[in-house]
Predict the structure.
Amino acid sequence: MSLQTNSMTQSPLVCLRELNKEYGKFTAVDHINLDIKKGEFLTFLGSSGSGKSTTLSMIAGFETPTSGEILLNDASLIHIPSHKRGIGMVFQHYSLFPHMTVRDNIGFPLDIRKVAKDERDQKVDEILKLVQLEAFADRRPSMLSGGQKQRVAIARALVYEPEILLMDEPLGALDKKLREELQDELRLLHKRLGITIVYVTHDQDEAMRLSERIAIFKEGEIVGLGTGKDLYRKPPNAFVASFLGNSNFLKVSVTGSASAMLNKQHIEVENVHEVPIDQKAVLMIRPENLHILTPEQAEKEPLMAGFNQLSGTVNESVFLGESLTCSITIPSGEKVVSKNIATEQPDLAPGSTVFIRWNSKLSSLYSKWEQSDINKNAA
Amino acid sequence: MLLSHGSLGWKLKSSLYVITGVIAAFLALPIFFIMALSFGSSQWLVFPPPSWTLKWYERFFDNPQWIESAWTSLQVASLTSIIATLLAIPASFALVRGKFRGRDYLYTFFTLPMVVPVVIIAVAVYGTFLNLGLTGTLFAFVTSHVIIALPFAIISIINSLRLFDKSIEDAAVICGAHRIQAILKVTFPVIKPGVISAALFSFLVSWDEVVISVMMASPNLQTLPVKMWSTLRQDLTPVIAVASTLLILLSLFIMIIASFVRKQSNHR
């Protein structure tokens, strides 16, 4: 994957080149290439063992790459030990120094750098204010709540003004409500300080909420890179489509540059990945892009250009408050799930016949897929 | 909990108290007897003592041999404690952090002196030091005591090092501290209770050690337990009870410090 060909206005802050990490026969990170832009919020998203944390550890210097290169401002980091890289990092379990007060925790990087006492105290006070912990400055970490501990960890990582802040699942140990609060705080902090943040998480909502760009990791490779919006709307492959959000996968065979056959019925497709003719493929449609119509509605509303229509039988519809999901069996025997704003939906009794429509521009076609991708069907 | 204290009937509860009391008495009574006898006037350790006296304490402190052996014990135990702890620190780091083949075997090897009968170790070091002509020296005492104290020191430090989240040390490193600096400023203060109890337990192991010490001892250099042992073989005198009492008091004192250190670390 050549990701560095994009014309960039400035050279990237960090470049990973053919970065590789092997543990014996196991390849944790498989020759990845990635440019991290100055000032961006980039998230490594993937399940456990996908190589995201190992990549972060290599940037921090806790793991040595088997081969490849890490550049920071065009200079190699490979032979520079962690403590000289000038990188900030926030760990999964806060990792505060239990025997020091909040103030001394935050002052630690400055003490190590032998910053004069006046300047040190001033900087610590400033950052305490930034993370709203002035009142807790003289407490030990054990006297703080999880959210406060994480704020201390962030303050400690920011006090020496690193060029880049690495965050390794920093909110994983917190409950959902607090996590969302801190996500909002973190996004605001990033906007205010303009610092480059590389964030690791397995939580796609968190990735969407926080990041400007997301790198999706799978088995040591980056299989998707882009804004959350682009990755969700136009997933580059079936894995990303199934990993981010819910999706329906239908088996089709390609018949032309913009057409395919779905169970003896011609449909229109957007063939952006240029799947060759007669090739078997899967068609991905997000549940919210499937519109359900009763036979009467279908008769009244003509099919718009670029839209496809299939008939189907309702299995079940579930009312979820703001939305309504509906599971439908189509003539091929495959099941699809739709999800629509509840007020727009007609009542659908199980067993009733309906028509489903979708805009072909909002579907994606893939010639390669793994069974595990399409098994994670929305149904 | 299945057996919560409150849910037990009064009969069961009171019988549990009685059983606990009996066991505690079984463990503690000999100590009380010996302490009481050290203040008793009877030459033949009659119990209950016909009257109370401090004359056996006078005898103990007037006899340079007793004082000297107590001093030797203190020296040997202190040196053993320091050396065993200093050796246990790097060994523990290697056993917890190291990634090398046979690490688990090495751990078993280091803790072996705890399992092997002391008399076997005693004969082995005795033979060695006899060959080297070193028996009866402070060096021989300390070296042989370090062998049996080391497992206790290693286990104590390893436990606290395993509980220590290494990412705290990594955090110090990414903050700009050299690895050694991070260990000294962050890891050490956190595992300090483990290191202190390693030192205290090593001290105790050496302090009441008798099997090895008997073999290492010479007429000029013997520890308190050895002096007691050899005195007992000649005659039974209440001065032995005095020595025992002093031995127990120091051990008790160290146990109290150890539990205090543990409490401090739990407060974190």
